[in-house]
Amino acid sequence: MNNQVIYINDTTLRDGEQAAGIAFNVEEKIAIASLLDSIGVHELEVGIPAMGHEEAESITRIAKLGLNAKLLGWNRANLSDIQASIDCGLDRVHVSVPVSDIQIAAKFKGKRQLVLDKLRDAINFACDRGLSVSVGGEDSSRADESFLLEVAQSAQEWGAFRFRFCDTVGVLDPTTTYKKVSYLVSHLSIVIEMHTHDDFGMALANTLAGVKAGAISVNTTVNGIGERAGNAPLEEVVMGLKYLYDIPTGIDTKRLVEVSKLVSKATNFPVLPWKAIVGENTFAHESGIHAHGVLQNPITYEPFAPEDVGWERRLVVGKHSGRHLLLSVLQQHGITLGQAEIQSVLDAVRHQSVKTKRSLTVEELLSLVPQS
Predict the structure, then answer these.
(1) How far is CA 371 from CA 218, 327, 332, 335, in A?
(2) 81 and 75 in contact (C-beta within 8 Å)?
C-alpha cells in the first residue's frame, strides 16, 4: 500500500465545531486553519457558509489567506447554500444528501427521487458556476446498497469529483466498512472519501479499513472532536497511515502536539492524558518493568519516537516505580544512594503517591531523599 497517496481533508472547523459545547470565534478559526495548512493538511472543510454572520465572515477571511490547502464549504442540496459558498469566495463545495431510508423519511418525506432531483439541481448549479463539487451520502452505512450506488453513480455522472461515504452514526465495524467501501470503489471512477464517527470507538479503525478498501481521501478532526462521540482524529489517522501502512501523507507530524494544544485551548476542553498520540501520558513511563525496558531501549515500550509527534519522553516516579527508574532519576540530579537508602526512598515514594493519588514531582522526590 506504500505507493498509495491518501489525502487528508480535515473538518475540525465544520464537523469538529458541531460538537456540543464548542464554538470557535473568527480569530480561532483563522488560527486553526493557518496552522493546519502550515503542517501540510491537503484540504480544509472550513464551515457552513449558509449559517451567515460570523461563520460566513470567518470563511471569507480564511479564503483570502492564500493558503496552500484546498478549502471546502459544506452545503445542503439547496441552491441558496451553494450561493452562500460562492459569496464567501469558495470555489470548492461539498453537497450532502441523505441516503438511508431513515434519513430520507425525516428530511424528504421518504421520497428517494426527490433526493436525486435536488442533488442533480445542486450539482448542475455549482458546476455551471465553475465550482468543484464533492458529494456526501449522509448515513451511507445504513443505506440500501443499491440506492447508495445509484446516488454515487449519479453524482459522478453529473460532474462530482468525489463521493463521501459517511458512517454518520458510527455503527460500522472495520470488516463491514471494508466490504461496503470495496463495493463502491469497484463501481465508481471518482474518489471515495471516508467520513467516520466514533460512537463505538471505531472511527480510526473504520477509516483505515476504508483506505484498505480503496478510499483515497479521509475526513479527520483534531483531537477527534465532533458530533456526539466525535470523528476520526487527525493525529491518529496520520500516524496510523504512516506506521501501520507505510503511507506518508506529507504532513509534518512533529507538530501534531502543537496543533492538538491549539484546538484544545480553542475548544476549552482538555485532552485526556491517555489520548492516543497527543495525550500527556503517551510517552510517560512510571511502572518498574516498563521504565526499566525503556531505559535500555525505548522501542521495548514505545511504538515510535516521541519526537515524531512533538513530545518528549518522561520518566515519572510514582506508586508503580522500581529501583532502576528511581536510580536513573536521582542520578540525573547528581544523587547516588546505597541499596538500603534506595529501598527506603522507594517505600516513601509509593506511600506518598498513594496518599496524593498521583505521581510525584521532581521536587517532591528530592525532598524524600535522606540528607547526608
Answers:
(1) 58, 16, 17, 11
(2) yes
